[in-house]
Amino acid sequence: MLRQRMIPSKRVLTKDNKRIMNQMMVLYKLTNVDIENCVLWALTEENELDIEEFKNACHDLFTATQKQSAIHLTNKSHEVLDKGNNPKKPLTQEEKLIQKLEVISPQQLLADLSSGNQASPQDMKLVREVMATQGLPAPVMNVLIHYVLLQSDMRLSKAYLETIASHWSRANLTTAREAMEFAKKQQEKFTKERSKKQSYRSYQQPALKKEIVPEWFKEQKKEAKQKQSRETEQATVVDLQKQKEEIAAFIKKQTANQRK
């Protein structure tokens, strides 16, 4: 299509651009013709692809398509699974989930987790940006969405999603199975570390209570009390002596007045 329009394809179809095109195709369930139209829309005057315009065009096309027809995810996902190359049926619910996450799109997963309702434009934009920025394959993104929703009371938290996505991107995960196993290990590691911290705190707490008032402080406090007691006794003696002197002076004065 680019060559037919005399557009330099190498300038448009760079490695990063092709990766994002593939991600948008999977995310929004777009056809080759849809992608071609979005590329043409996002081309600059210099025949370079404005990647943000391209992503927005894909999103707008998806939104327009959603308004025209409802999504039936369950049937679609079963059709894909039935046509898979692996004829062996999964034996566990986890195996079934892994197979489903390998083949459906993130948009399908969001709608499926919403009881068949359409995925919101806000959630789709969030998923789109994370996929494009971190370069996550669709199966890995599916596991990430599923994991974050379960951990966040079915809310797609932007900060949480981006934090885990960057970690998984560095781990170079490529399949849903790899992502799920990685998530399990990280969760187990986090649980063990939290358990160790709680055990350490409960072990240290009695010792800390005993060391709050050290022996040297007790001795210092005892000496201060004794000193205060001695000073009180001395003050009492001084007061008694003073009272005696005052009484003696008063008697002496009275005796002198009687003589006169």
Overview of the structural elements:
InterPro entries: DnaB/C_C (IPR006343). The protein is mostly helical. It has three domains: 1-69, no CATH class; 78-118 and 136-212, no CATH class; 225-260. The protein contains twelve helices and no strands. The protein has helices spanning 9-12, 15-28, 32-42, 51-68, 73-82, 93-103, 106-113, 121-134, 138-151, 158-170, 176-210, 215-259. The N and C termini lie far apart (141 Å).
Task: Output the radius of gyration.
Answer: 40 Å
**Backbone shape:** elongated
Following the backbone from N to C, one meets helices and strands in this order, namely: HHHHHHHHHHHH
* Beta-strand content: under 5%
Domains, number: 3
What's the tally of helices? 12
Helix content: over 70%
What distance lies between the first and last C-alpha atoms, to the nearest angstrom? 141 Å
Q: Give the strand tally.
A: 0
The SS-based structural class is mainly alpha
**What is the averaged pLDDT score?**
79
Q: Low-confidence segments, ≥5 residues, pLDDT <50? A: 70-84, 207-213
Largest sheet: none
In a nutshell, what does this entry contain?
76% of the residues lie in helices and 0% in strands.
